[in-house]
Amino acid sequence: MNANFNIKNDNLVRVGGHKKFNPSIIVLMEADINYTKVHLNSGKVIYVATNLKKLEERLATNVSFFRSHRSFIINLNHVINTCGEDTIQLANNKTVLVARRRKEALVQKLACLKMAV
Questions:
Q1: 9-116, which class in CATH?
Q2: CB neighbours (10 Å) of residue 81?
Q3: What is the Cα–Cα distance from 44 to 81, expressed in whole angstroms?
């Protein structure tokens, strides 16, 4: 069953081919050479033949997404905890790397999101 049945088409993000998702159900996008693994909050992992740079461009207007590392785009609404200096834990129990040069921007963006809530 499609998790997006109550969502208008303009709210959906095209992640590859004919696959469109509500951005709120995307937890993480992980680079895999020229493919991307899209991790959903249901636990499903979907492979798409779209690279991470292209997906980052499509999500540029959505403030909930952040490129934490060259291999990851995370949904900040699914961040549970920061673990040490260079990793964060997500709602699906995955830990992802944060690049040293992007750590400060991540902290600022998380602070902005908390203030907006």
A1: mainly beta
A2: 9
A3: 21
Burial level of 90, CB count in 10 A (0-12/13-18/19+)?
buried
The DSSP line for 36-60 is EEEEETTS-EEEESS-HHHHHHHTT
Torsion of CA 90, 92, 97, 98, to 10 degrees: -30
Main-chain dihedrals φ then ψ at residue 82, nearest 5 degrees: -95, 130
Extract the tokens encoding 42: 């249901």
Instruction: Look up the pTM and report it.
Output: 0.84
Spatial separation of the C-alpha atoms in residues 108 and 42, rounded to whole Å = 28
Reported as a single tens digit per residue, the pLDDT across 39-48 is 999 999 999 9
Q: Is 1 helix (H, G, I), strand (E, B) or coil?
A: coil
